[in-house]
Amino acid sequence: MQIQSVRGFHDILEKEAKKFRKVSQTAREVLKLYNFEEIILPVVEYTELFQRSVGEATDIVQKEMFVFEDRKGRTLALRPEGTASTVRAFIQHKLYALRPYWKLFYEGPMFRYERPQAGRYRQFHQIGAEVFGVAEPHADAEIIKIAYDILEKLGIKNVVVEINSLGCKKDREAYRTALLEYLHGVKEELCSDCINRMERNPLRVLDCKVETCKAAVKESPKIVNFLCEECKEHYEKLKEYLKELNVPFRENYNLVRGLDYYTRTVFEAVSEELGLTLIAGGRYDYLVEELGGPPTPALGFALGVERLMLLLEDEEEGFRDAYFIIPFGDEKVYKYALKVAETLRKQGKVAELSYRKGGLKKQLELANKMKYKYAVIVGEDELKEGVVTIKNMETGEQRVEKI
Ligand code: HAM
Questions:
Q1: For ligand 1, is residue 306 a contact (CB within 6 Å)?
Q2: Which residues of 359-388 are buried (b: 16+ CB within 10 A; e: fewer)?
Q3: Vertex 126: Cα angle to 122 and 128 (nearest 5)
Q4: Which of 41, 43, 23 is nearest to 31 (CA)?
Q5: May I ask the CATH class of domain 14-168+228-309?
Q6: What homologous superfamily is domain 320-402 in, according to CATH?
Q7: Is the pTM here over 0.85, yes or no?
């Protein structure tokens, strides 16, 4: 039987690969304008890192991680996300001792054992940005603005930016108690998953996509009413700054996110067309400390490359600005053709030597099929004169040139 790719793991071919690069380049351009620096992280980490950061009770850790043992019996995981690794690196290399704050970005594959469907894969790619050492809300606004800028630069429309505040530890504690009390009252209407996660992580019930659960939590207490003065002010300032930056947003008090490390600001940029979240993030002010570093406020976001790709138009299939060199003759002509290709490349032009033998007509058909704008005919006469014949495949125009 022919070997196929693993379910949920995809090849990204030509046109799609172009879209992939477009997303990547655009994100990098925007991040550069905000002065982010790249960090290249390993794909494998100790499983414990994700248990302690993303959270033991989350779906990601409970059901979605690719976990395996190495030859010495240590438990490793393919990373399901990039924030935990960035925090680990920040602490491991004592970056906090070198600068008052850091702005880092990463790009690469992430792995989650989810049910594959459009826009949801088991290997997908994220570009993420993390800021360490900044507590002020203008950083929250800027992080959201970066996400917004990337979408805008890519021409992606019909996106709603949703924001919420999850408060600090104390606020969450008080809210958790109130929410749990409420959930007990509507327990009959909740799905079995929600009943299971209720005690461990009641906030996740607010995020459930099952209709009956959605209806059941409509009247639930809202976290915004449990914020302390400082968290409230942080949230109010964030909204002010977003308005200042002309980022349209919508408050969603049920937005809680599927990872446990968040505090205060959380946000998601959701595509109305796909009904999927494109970019998501928020603040995680305790995580650095919880993983053994000094207290360091932090925040960030990650975008799903494949999800943005779904919203990009196919590029028009015109002729490529490239030269297809057709040697037409004996060995001497072939050698000349090799040099012609080299000369063109030295001039910064895309040049490809035909690897197919055959008559001129066939070769020109090939040039046409491969959408080369120029066919460069190199024969005995051209060799003698030290010239080439260039045919513009788009217009049919032909001229002899010295190159
Ligand atoms: P996340 O919401 O789990 O957050 O993922 C961020 C983005 O990755 C999603 O909005 C989506 O575009 C993409 N994504 C997630 N799962 C899949 C999948 N199975 N297939 C395709 N795309 C997917 C995080 O990962 C956080 N680390 C974000 C963050 C950074 N928060 C603070 N800093």
A1: yes
A2: eeeebbebbeeeebbbbbbbbeebbeeebb
A3: 145
A4: 23
A5: alpha beta
A6: Anticodon-binding domain (3.40.50.800)
A7: yes
| 277 in contact with ligand 1, CB cutoff 6 A | yes
| Owner of token pair 């993420």 | 128
Closest CA relative to residue 276, chosen from 244, 310, 251: 310
**CB-based contacts of 224, cutoff 8 Å, min separation 6:** 164, 165, 235, 251, 253
Q: Is 280 in the pocket of ligand 1 (CB under 6 A)?
A: yes
C-alpha 62/C-alpha 58 separation (Å) is: 6
CA torsion through residues 124, 121, 85, 69, sign: negative
Question: Ligand 1 centroid vs 29 CA: distance in angstroms?
Answer: 20
Q: Where are the domains of the chain?
A: 14-168+228-309, 320-402
* Per-residue pLDDT tens digits for 184-205: 999 999 999 899 888 888 998 9
Q: Is the CB of 47 under 6 A from ligand 1?
A: no
Half-sphere exposure of 249 toward its Cβ, with a 13 Å CA cutoff? 27
- pLDDT value at 357 more than 90: no
Q: For 24-68, how does the pLDDT look when each residue is reduced to its tens digit (9 = 90+)?
A: 999 999 999 999 999 999 999 999 999 999 999 888 999 999 999
Report which secondary-structure segment, H or E, holds 338: helix 331-346
How crowded is residue 225: how many other Cβ atoms within 10 Å of its Cβ?
12
Which atom from ligand 1 is nearest to the alpha carbon of 269? 10
- The single residue listed with the structure tokens 């600001």 is 265
pLDDT at 73 over 90: yes
Which residues sit opposite 299 in a β-bridge?
Answer: 131, 283
